[in-house]
């Protein structure tokens, strides 16, 4: 019996050795001692950077192979995938072999990879055909594009970078004039022996395109003129993708439409007057909205808003708002006309508001009318308002003020992204005042300016500077509405101090003074796409005279989150003068 068992065991051993030797993939190496660890059924062995890349794209088995045939099929298929994947990373001469390991007493296959040398770029040749080649005004642009080409000679070749560079170049060519530009030839010739790649690309610009007439689809209640008046270009002007984008944004920003699509006809036979196709979906003309929120300036908020976007069947915007905040309560009703062909519209409104901030209670009634000129990045506004204000400072004399004031406002902004700004600037100037002889209790003239700048730092970070200054020319602050005086403190001012807590003391209250100056320096580091942290310093003051100004300094740090509406900020700031800490919650971009 013992001899019989020995013969059976020897036969089984020979059969297993024969099975190993008969597997052409695994037979080239011998077994390696046992390796313990988590259950696995195949392994990749490669340099760290290559292994990390492959593990993101190669799916290893999660259960044992059914048989040797299944294992051989997996290894052959995976070898082919690895060779293709490594070629996208510039490795065109990889060596892929197979080994075996014992893991948890189970024999598993190991894919051993030597990626070989990474290929570098040997030469770059970029050619242009079509109208752009003969356009003298485009030669400087062509030189700029060639100089900015990111895949320089000697740099490693990556397929993703090659595809992105071609797409960017085509986008640059088609951005202005050449709406039908296309890549007619692109080659990446690989020299495996010397690990080099020669790049060659040809772009045909096609003819110069000119804006034609609008062809509008989707209008039911509104006149096509309202869309015509929003377009930032005229028929016959050279095509510009930026102007097309501005046109679409302008239409999306008005409440009359839900979905908006703006496209140019790319047919080269129509390039002299290419039609612009505008497709819109009209929204309901009347809407009631209810909302709520919180800010550290005014506390909790609840509001209800009724709007009618087709007021008097003229597509005017009528709105009525009731907003209740802990420190401020507002009722507003107003109507805006649509912009005309000169980008001018008119606004008429009435407001009743009560505030209770820093022991100062104000009750204001206001009526105003405005003429507004607005383009993509510029706004000029002329307005006339009459207001009556009751001022009730705790511990001081109550006062009722009336004023008929004329206001002029100019604002210019150019930013890369209105929601998440990394580069850009915003400038604002305001001048307003009234005369004692024309329905005002005192002569006054208010001057105000603000400047905001954003600069990108590295790939993600942002450095931000803000400065503002104001001065009200008058014999005294009495007899002037608080709107035409100045207080500071809180969000968008000097953090570390309560909202509007910096100003002139009357009794126990803080009221507005005639002088203001504040500034901010802030650095934001984005750890991930949507999460970041910021450090900041705020400084400034508000007083009745320049001599009375006393510097208030605040500094701290906070968390940033990119919400769909824009970055939200939660800041902890210390007021240097008081030594106290305050939490500020706000929307970061507010201009």
Automatic annotation (TrEMBL):
| Keywords in alphabetical order | Cell outer membrane, Membrane, Signal, Transmembrane, Transmembrane beta strand
Please verify whether the record's keywords include Repeat: no
* Leader sequence residues: 1-27
Segments passing through the bilayer:
none
Q: Where is the Bacterial surface antigen (D15) domain?
A: 286-587
> Which InterPro entries does the UniProt entry name for this protein?
Bac_surfAg_D15 (IPR000184), D15-like (IPR039910)
What is the predominant subcellular site recorded for this chain? membrane
Question: Does tRNA-binding show up as a keyword for this record?
Answer: no
The record's section on Pfam families has: Omp85
Q: Name one GO cellular component term.
A: outer membrane
Q: Where in the cell is it found?
A: Membrane
Q: What's the protein here called?
A: Autotransporter secretion outer membrane protein TamA
